[in-house]
Design a protein that fits this description.
By secondary structure, this protein is an alpha/beta fold. It folds into 2 domains: about 5-125, Rossmann fold (3-Layer(aba) Sandwich), CATH 3.40.50; about 160-205. It is about 50% helix and about 10% strand. The protein has a 4-stranded parallel sheet with strand order 2-1-3-4. α4 runs antiparallel to α5. It is elongated.
Length: about 200
């Protein structure tokens, strides 16, 4: 059976546009049925379209992704998935933003070693960058809750009620679809939907 080319696209939320990733795939003339798109967090690989794609991959097929962080966000998980696809399924992966990460071209032992080293380095750097961004976001939120001002000194309107101490934990569970909005509101002290979604909007902004 002739090998096929598949593509995987991931956006972090339903509101994010995937046009840039689709544009990068044009030169490969991939059938629309072979392009799989998830619009959710990359914290793990429990994503519907990704799992369907992975089950469709066969030996010598090629999986094209725009950048390594579209595959996932977690350093160890990325390495595990990469090895599962390339060593167990024996399909190839092509990363458009990093041409050296193309297992279809580097089939010898040296090529495999180079791919593993570069992949590990890129994944580590990407994870460190995300950790830094989360830290800066947390600092900004804490400053805003304490002073009512952003880091630039601009004053913003406060919520009618202060955010509960468990807000970050509950929001993350709800945002990752681990709990329903109703359950989240219960955990936050039985707040009303309009208050909950106002806080959600503020968190995302």
């Amino acid at each position: 059976m002739a090998s096929k080319i598949f593509a995987y696209i991931r956006a972090s939320s339903k509101d994010q546009n995937v046009a840039r990733q689709l544009e990068a795939l044009k030169e490969f003339n991939i059938d629309e049925r072979d392009i799989y798109i998830d619009k959710q967090s990359g914290k793990d690989f429990n994503r519907e379209q990704y799992q369907i794609l992975k089950n469709a991959l066969r030996e010598n097929d090629i999986l094209v992704i725009k950048s390594i962080d579209r595959l996932g966000r977690n350093y160890n998980m990325i390495l595990e998935e990469w090895r599962d696809i390339t060593q167990n399924i024996k399909a190839d992966i092509k990363v458009l933003d990093m041409p050296i990460l193309d297992t279809s071209k580097n089939k010898d032992l040296l090529g495999s070693v180079i791919n593993d080293i570069i992949l590990a380095l890129l994944s580590y750097v990407a994870e460190q960058e995300r950790t830094y961004i989360r830290s800066r976001q947390r600092e900004g939120i804490d400053l805003y809750l304490k002073t009512g001002k952003t880091k630039t000194g601009n004053r913003m309107g406060r919520p009618t009620l202060p955010l509960p101490t468990n807000w970050s934990e509950v929001y993350e569970k709800w945002n990752n679809k681990k709990i329903t909005a109703k359950k989240a509101m219960e955990l936050l002290g039985g707040i009303k939907p309009n208050k909950f979604y106002a806080w959600v909007k503020e968190e995302r902004n």
